[in-house]
Design brief:
The chain is of the alpha+beta class. It contains 16 helices and 13 strands. Helices cover about 40% and strands about 15% of the residues.
Length: about 425
C-alpha cells in the first residue's frame, strides 16, 4: 500500500503539471487569461490535419526588424497594387488573365504617359491661375482622373440595357436638336483639340476663296508647342483644296495653320472670325485661339460642339473631305498616302455623314460625328476619352444601344 500510494502521488504531480499549460491555452483561446509568453510560444496552425508551431526564430526576427516602427507588413500583392504617391492603379497578378476590357484597352489601365493639365504643363495658359478657361477646381480634375483609371470596368457596373459610355463628356442628340438621347457632362467646358478644324474649315469656306490657289507651308506652321510630326515639309506648295482635305481627313496641323495664315488679314483675323462664327451658332461656352487645336485654350462643351457639327454638315465639301477614307497627294514631287484618323468611316456598318477626331494631352481622345443610327440622323460627341480605342468603343456602344432600343420600341427621348 505504501508503494502504491507514493506512485499515485507522483503520477498526480506529473498530470497536474501537464494540465496547467493546457488550461492556460484553453483560457487564452476563450479570452480569459492571455499571457504574452503563452501567445508567442503556442501558435498552432492546422495544415492538412497536422498541428505545427510557428517558428519562434522567424517571428523574433520579424519583430526585431520592425521593432519600434509600429508597422504592419502588407501582403506583397497588396503592396504592389498601391502605387507611390497615393495613387491606386489596377495591377495584373502573375498567372491571372486580364479581363477582356483590359486587354482591348491597355491604355486605360496604365496611363503613365497621361497627366493632368497641371502636371503636364504647369505654366501653360490653359491652367494658369486666373485663366478664364482653366479647370475650375482641383477636385474636378481628380474626379476625372479616377474616371479614367476605372473606365474599363464601366460595362460591368451597368444594368442590362443601360448605356455605359466611358468618355468624360458625351452627347447623343438629333441632328436638328431637341432633347438628347443621351448626355454625360455635356455642359463641361473642356479643351477640344483638333475638333477645332471643323470651325477652321467653315471659316475658310465662308471667305469664298479660290480653292485651287496654291498655299505654302512655312516655318510659322511648324508645331513648336507640342512637337507634333508632319509630312508636309517647310516649303511644300499645295492647292488650298488639298490643304483643307488633309486638315479634315488626316488632321494635318501644318495644313490647318497655313489655311489660317492665308486668310485675308492673316492668322489674327482668322482666329477672330472663328470666334465670331462660334457666337453666331450659339456656341456661348466656346473659345478659339488657333486654327489647329494644339492650343489647349480652344475649349467648348459637348452641347456647343453638337451645334458646330450640325452647322458643318451643311457644307458639302466638309462632309466629303471629313469622311474620305484616304488619298494619295503629291507633296514636293513625291506621292504620299494620307488616311482618315477615324477608322469608322471605312466600316460598312456605319453611315457617317461627317467626322472629326482630336487629341492633345489636356483634351484626351475626342470624336465628333454626324451619322444615321437606328434610322435617325444624330450627332455624336465624345470628349476626354482615355484609351486609344475608347472613343471608338463608345461610338459602337451608342450605336448598338440605339438599335436595340429602337427594335424593341423603347428608344427614349432622354435618359
Amino acid at each position: 500500500m505504501r508503494i502504491t500510494l507514493r506512485t499515485a502521488v507522483l503520477l498526480g504531480a506529473v498530470v497536474g503539471t501537464m494540465l496547467i499549460p493546457m488550461e492556460s491555452v484553453q483560457a487564452a483561446e476563450k479570452g480569459k487569461g492571455k499571457t504574452t509568453s503563452q501567445k508567442s510560444a503556442v501558435a498552432p496552425v492546422a495544415q492538412k490535419g497536422k498541428v505545427e508551431a510557428a517558428a519562434p526564430k522567424s517571428a523574433a526576427k520579424m519583430a526585431a526588424v520592425h521593432k519600434g516602427k509600429g508597422e504592419v507588413l502588407a501582403p506583397r500583392s497588396t503592396a504592389k497594387a498601391v502605387a507611390d504617391r497615393g495613387r491606386v492603379e489596377p495591377v495584373a497578378r502573375k498567372g491571372k488573365a486580364m479581363p477582356a476590357a483590359h486587354r482591348d484597352e491597355p491604355a486605360v489601365l496604365a496611363r503613365k504617359d497621361r497627366k493632368t493639365p497641371q502636371a503636364a504643363n504647369p505654366g501653360s495658359a490653359h491652367v494658369a491661375q486666373g485663366s478664364r478657361y482653366a479647370p475650375h477646381e482641383a477636385g474636378l480634375i481628380q474626379k476625372r482622373n479616377l474616371t479614367r483609371v476605372f473606365a474599363s470596368h464601366a460595362d460591368l457596373w451597368q444594368e442590362p440595357g443601360h448605356l455605359a459610355v466611358q468618355s468624360g463628356s458625351a452627347l447623343v442628340i438629333g441632328q436638328d436638336g431637341g432633347e438628347p438621347f443621351y448626355e454625360k457632362n455635356a455642359n463641361a467646358v473642356v479643351p477640344i483639340a483638333s475638333i477645332t478644324k471643323l470651325m477652321t474649315a467653315m471659316v475658310v469656306l465662308d471667305s469664298m476663296p479660290n480653292l485651287q490657289a496654291p498655299i505654302t507651308i512655312s516655318d510659322e506652321d511648324v508645331d513648336y508647342l507640342r512637337g507634333s510630326r508632319s509630312r508636309l515639309q517647310v516649303g511644300s506648295v499645295l492647292p488650298r483644296e488639298t490643304a483643307l482635305l488633309l486638315a479634315l481627313m488626316s488632321s494635318e496641323n501644318r495644313a490647318a495653320n497655313a489655311l489660317g495664315r492665308h486668310y485675308p488679314g492673316g492668322l489674327q483675323a482668322f482666329v477672330a472670325a472663328m470666334n465670331r462664327k462660334a457666337m453666331s451658332l450659339g456656341m456661348t461656352s466656346s473659345h478659339f485661339e488657333d486654327p489647329t487645336g494644339l492650343n489647349s485654350n480652344n475649349v467648348s462643351t459637348a452641347h456647343d460642339l453638337a451645334r458646330m457639327v450640325a452647322a458643318a454638315h451643311r457644307y458639302p465639301l466638309i462632309r466629303e473631305f471629313s469622311t474620305t477614307p484616304g488619298v494619295r497627294a503629291e507633296v514636293k514631287g513625291r506621292d504620299l498616302d494620307f488616311h482618315n484618323t477615324n477608322q469608322l468611316v471605312s466600316s460598312p456598318t456605319w453611315e457617317i455623314g461627317l467626322s472629326k477626331t482630336g487629341y492633345i494631352q489636356e483634351a484626351g481622345k475626342c470624336l465628333v460625328m454626324q451619322a444615321r443610327v437606328a434610322d435617325k440622323p444624330v450627332v455624336i460627341v465624345l470628349l476626354d476619352s482615355a484609351g486609344k480605342q475608347t472613343r471608338i468603343g463608345d461610338a459602337n456602344r451608342i450605336k448598338r444601344w440605339m438599335e436595340s432600343a429602337s427594335a424593341s420600341g423603347k428608344l427614349p427621348t432622354r435618359v
